[in-house]
Amino acid sequence: GDGCGHTLLTPHSGTLSSKNYPGTYPNHTACRWRLRAPPGTSLLLAFGDVDLEPSEHCARSSLLLADPQAGTAYGPYCRNAGPAAPLLVTNSSTVTVLFNSTSHRSGRGLLLSYATSQHPDLVSCLVRGTHYTQEHVSVYCPAGCKDIDGDIWGNPSQGYRDTSVLCKAAVHAGVIADELGGQVTLSREKGITLYESAFANGLHSKRGSLSEKRLIFHKACLLPLPACGDALEVAAFNASSWWHEVDALGQDRPWAAERAALGTTGHSWAAEPGSEAAWLELDLGARRNVTGIITKGSSEQYDYYVTSYRVSSSRDGKNWRPYRGSSGQEDKVFEGNSDSHGEVSNAFIPPIVARYVR
């Protein structure tokens, strides 16, 4: 049977879990993962959770880590015989992870992350901001934390309640891509009265009350300035088409491209009704380092919004390159808005360097 749950494995880091985690894992299942590090490095394993039903010699459910080539093994582990430390340092570049279950009644199962020996500050997807007491924190978040169970409160501009799951908050803030993981640096500052919820980078955060501390993530900026947090000026807008609305009085109201600027009062830009493959183009006036985009619906008055979109860029306005994100395999589809009034942020990791963005 298939005991494999959420799995995201990359050459440098990844996360895996048993089926149904953190719900009880199924009876009579097995799963086998093969982890490989690049040549010249070895593997580190962070145990987020190992909650397998206790039994003598872990006979009912077990987690075993093995390197057959070196003849080394770690485990078997279960609830009454867990790992001695949350981080396991191996001398192996390949590790096989074996998970087995027989009949059992309880147990969340397992959540495990890994990285290469180049990242000794690897943390689990379950680590929260409250885990730390120091003012400045730098940790390595593994790939694959976005879809792990855990709550975050706050947003990229305000910061996050310190009870938030740290690596998931970092994905929401746009400082790392979930499919890559990466180094995260943050400050623990004084908490605020209320944290507003937001949808960003495919994740919903919650609205939260006062906390003692809040987490402020620091983005790694690329020169030249302006810095990552600054809104770029748009020199001109263009579009594939726009809607010429005729109102109740017979007057023409153009939903023209230049009305697409965030914060425009009244109606915004809209493509001509029925048009396919519509696009909006931003001319930034000069080549810029673009680290993300914020989208919003038309306004409170008009219930129009874009639910998903692709992005392409150009340095000369003639040759266009689709944005494929960190994977580089296929055009990235960004999750947009679900209503006409909320703002949605999406980060470009890596950033786009271009004058024109569509």
Automatic annotation (TrEMBL):
Basic and acidic residues composition-biased segments: 329-340
GO CC annotation: plasma membrane
Domain F5/8 type C: start-end pairs: 221-358
Subcellular location: Membrane
Residue pairs linked by disulfide bridges in the UniProt entry: C4-C31
Residue ranges constituting the LCCL domain according to the UniProt record: 119-215
UniProt region (Disordered), positions on chain: 320-340
Broad class of the protein's primary localization: membrane
Domain of life of the source: Eukaryota
PANTHER family (UniProt xref): DISCOIDIN, CUB AND LCCL DOMAIN CONTAINING 1 (PTHR46806:SF6), F5/8 TYPE C DOMAIN-CONTAINING PROTEIN (PTHR46806)
Protein name (record): DCBD1 protein
Natural source organism: Spizaetus tyrannus (black hawk-eagle)
